[in-house]
From TrEMBL:
HAMAP family: GTPase_HflX (MF_00900). GO terms for cellular component: cytoplasm. Its cofactor is Mg(2+). Its main location: cytoplasm. Residues 202-375 form the Hflx-type G domain. It is found in: Cytoplasm. The gene is hflX. It comes from Qipengyuania marisflavi. It comes from the Bacteria. This is GTPase HflX. GTP binds at residues 208-215, 233-237, 255-258, 326-329, 353-355. Mg(2+) binds at residues 215, 235. Monomer. Associates with the 50S ribosomal subunit.
Length: 431
């Protein structure tokens, strides 16, 4: 880690490759790439989009374009070039040689940010694993030119083992160790989650595109001081706090990592594990920067991640999703008027400004309402002799299945799936 240093002056180049479709247009992608660079303290000296009609396997860009990048580097005194796309290891090496400067691609950049931000043990393990995976792929495909014969002492491998094989094995071993550690950490966290699931407190998860305002809203609702900044990926590790809502004494609010388009594959798994918490929520609040010109594309990306997590299938969501149209204060009066109409017509949309607090009381009201009425499928295993509880479930919830689950310590066990809202769950737990 630490491939780039804070304060480095960089050129940010967004390749617009013909035939590759994107939700975001090139200018929006360029702005996002600048945001990523800023997030790690890089000074953006200049930035531009370069159309690529045909990918050059060796350099991605054509020779004339590479010359133009070199000129721009000179003009703007840049020591680093950020390419907002995927570079093959060979392309990266060739560009570095031709430009005489360090070149980093989008995956490398996001890995750097994640490396700097991860704060919990689990987050750090995930990011290191992702980084090793990235390095490993680079070793396999490009470092062969660096291969050199190792002398025949044979501590690590047989005599004559090449350096690249040794490096590869070391990375593999390290990854194996990290995976085991990660599993251990997750087991502990899994226990916590089970315990919380049994606790009669509903969980509200904030999700959304990076920089949408999740942490700002989290802080406003909880009085906490989670880092909320105009930085992409300000939050990496999930944070939870208790809040009180109208009609609900206690609910758990969780803040999560922001989403971004084209997340590096190496980070998808890490990211998904962090987001698993979301699948145990009673309500998902999808925080949107409604003032952003790419807000629609961002929403598509967020829904895609929720789909990957299994929360959304087709048009159906298994957990109610309340959209929060945040940064309302940034809208022009005309836009505000038009969007207010749409928000009014949809009872799963609330307009708000986490910054000014406008719309927040109504949002709390709506959350309380949803939590007392939205039923989620829950599964219980109860001794068949627990007649009172079983009867209560039938009377208050919508029982979907009630089946034999074998023998327990106290005789036969029933497995019952039932739709209950969080309030009913609380009552049931206190029976
Ligand atoms: N004008 C305005 N700015 C806001 C509002 N909500 C958040 N912001 C600003 O938007 C920026 C990002 O806010 P965060 O709360 O850090 O966003 P996030 O969604 O947690 O971002 P990540 O953790 O990076 O995913 C900060 O500069 C906030 O001050 C709002 O309602 N209005
Ligand atoms: Mg945040």
């Amino acid at each position: 880690m630490g491939e780039v240093s804070r304060g480095a002056r960089a050129l940010v180049v967004c390749p617009d490759i013909r035939g590759q479709s994107h939700d975001l247009d090139p200018q929006a992608r360029l702005a996002e790439a600048e945001g990523l660079a800023l997030a790690i303290g890089i000074v953006v000296a200049d930035s531009f989009v370069l159309p690529v009609r045909q990918i050059r396997p060796g350099t991605l860009f054509g020779a004339g374009q590479v010359d133009n990048i070199a000129i721009a580097c000179e003009q703007h005194e840049s020591e680093l070039i950020v390419i907002d796309g995927a570079l093959s290891p060979i392309q990266q090496r060739n560009l570095e040689e031709k430009l005489g400067r360090k070149v980093i691609d989008r995956t490398g950049l996001i890995l750097e940010i994640f490396g700097e931000r991860a704060a919990t043990a689990e987050g750090r393990l995930q990011v290191e694993l992702a980084h090793l995976d990235y390095q490993q792929s680079r070793l396999v495909r490009s470092w062969t030119h660096l291969e050199r014969q190792r002398g025949g002492f044979g501590f690590l491998g047989g005599p004559g083992e090449t350096q690249i094989e040794a490096d590869r094995r070391m990375i593999r071993q390290r990854m194996g160790r990290l995976r085991r550690e990660l599993e251990q950490v997750r087991k502990t966290r899994g226990l916590h989650r089970d315990r919380r699931e049994r606790a009669p407190w509903p969980v509200v998860a904030l999700v959304g595109y990076t920089n949408a305002g999740k942490s700002t809203l989290f802080n406003r609702l909880t009085g906490a001081e989670v880092m909320a900044e105009d930085l992409l990926f300000a939050t990496l590790d999930p944070t939870m706090r208790a809040i009180t809502l109208p009609g609900i004494e206690k609910a758990i609010l969780s803040d999560t990592v922001g989403f971004i388009s084209d997340l590096p594959t190496q980070l998808v798994a890490a990211f998904r594990a962090t987001l698993e918490e979301v699948t145990a929520a009673d309500i998902i609040c999808h925080v949107r920067d409604i003032s952003n010109s790419s807000t629609q594309a961002q929403k598509t990306q967020v829904l895609q991640v929720l789909r990957d997590l299994g929360v959304v299938e087709g048009e159906e969501a298994s957990i109610p999703i309340l959209e929060i149209w945040n940064k309302w204060d940034q809208l022009s009066p005309d836009d505000a008027e038009e969007l207010a109409q749409q928000a009014d017509d949809d009872d799963m949309v609330m307009a708000a400004s986490a910054l000014t607090g406008e719309g927040v009381p109504a949002l709390l009201e709506r959350l309380g309402e949803l939590l007392t009425t939205s039923a989620v499928l829950r599964e219980f295993e109860l001794p068949a002799s627990a007649g009172r509880q079983i009867a209560w479930l039938h009377a208050h919830g919508e029982v979907i299945t009630n089946e034999d689950a074998g023998e327990g310590d106290d005789g036969p066990v029933r497995r019952i799936s039932v739709r209950l809202n969080p309030k009913e769950l609380g009552q049931f737990e206190n029976l």
